[in-house]
Amino acid sequence: MKVLHVLRQLNPGGIECWLDRLFRAWPLSARPDFHFALEERDFGSLAPGLLSLGATLHFCPPPRQSGASAAAFSRLLHQQGPFDVVHCHNHHASAFHLALAALHGVRLRISQSHADFRRSSINASPLRRHYEQASQVLLRTLANVKLAVSNGAAADLFGPHSDGVRLLPCGTNFDALLDTQSRRDASRFTLIHVGRLVPEKNHQFLLHLTADLIARHPSTRLWLVGDGPLRAQLESLAQSLGIQSNVSFFGNRTDIPHLLAAADLFLFPSLSEGLGLAALEAQAAGLPTLLASHLPQELNLLPALTRRLALDLPITEWVKFILEMRTMPRLDRLQRQQALVDSPYSIESNLRSLSQIYAS
Question: What domains, with CATH codes, occur in the chain?
C-alpha cells in the first residue's frame, strides 16, 4: 500500500512528531510505503530520520502558488503513483490537493483536521471567511474519509453540521512518561510549557504571568521547551521584563519526560488548539496542568490533575490559582496507567485505527 501525506514541513510540531512516531512504531512487515509532499524546500529537522527509515520526501509548492503547486502535485501523483491513499494535514488547503487526487483516481482521500481556529476566525476578513466556507463545502465531497483530533477541530474544518467525521487524536508513547521518576528541586517553583514558539501558543502571556509570579515568589522559574519564529522576540520580552535569569529557552529537546518530571506545574494558555498533545503528555507524567478554559474538553485526560481558567481573567487571578495548585496531590504511576490503558491517545491505538482506515 502506498500512502501520500501532505503537510508543510517536517520540523518538530504536533502533526510532524506524530507522523514520525507513527512511522517508527508501525511494524515494518505491515507498514505502508509512506511518501510526504512538503511545501518547503527545507524539509525540516525530522526529515533525515524519516529518510533513513525508508520514507520518500517530495517538494510541492504551497497552494497559494496555484499553477506551480497543481503542476508539481499532479506530476507527483502521476510519476510516483498510483497512490492508494492521499492523507492531507493542511487544513482548508486539503481541498486543493484532494481535488487533484480525485482527478487522478486516488481511492482513499483523507482530510484530517488538527486545529480549531474558530476563536481567531471571528476577526477574519470577508474574503477569508468565504475561502473557509468554500473549503468546507468542497471537503464534504472530495474527502471520502474525514478525521479530526477533537470535536472542536472537526467543527472548524468541516462545519458544525458535518456528518461522518471520525475522531483520531494524535497519540504518543506513554511508557517513558509513566516511568520517569520525579526529580523536582524543592527550593524552586518550576513552571513548564512545551510547544512551538508561534503566536497561537500565547507565550507572551506566559512571560507576563511569570513576571507577576516572580514578584511574589522570586524562586519561580519558567521552562519553555520548543522552538519557532518568535524565539528572538520572546527572549527580548523576557529581558525587558527583567526575568531573563528565571526563564530558560530549551529549544527542541528529546528528553521531555525528564523535564516534565523535574517541573512543578504545566501551563497551557494557548489561543487555539486542535487538541494539544503536550498537555496530555504532562498529565501522563503526573504533572498538575492548568489549561485555558476554551481549549478542548478532551484535554481533561486525568481530571484530578487538570484545572481551567479563562484567558480574559486578570493575570492576578492566574497567579492566585497557580499558587493554590502547588499543593495539588500527585497521582502515582498505577493511577495514571489505568487511565491510559486503551486510551485513544496512545500511538498503538492510532496504529490500529489508521490500519483499518487505510484498508477500508
Answer: 2-171+344-359 (3.40.50.2000), 175-340 (3.40.50.2000)
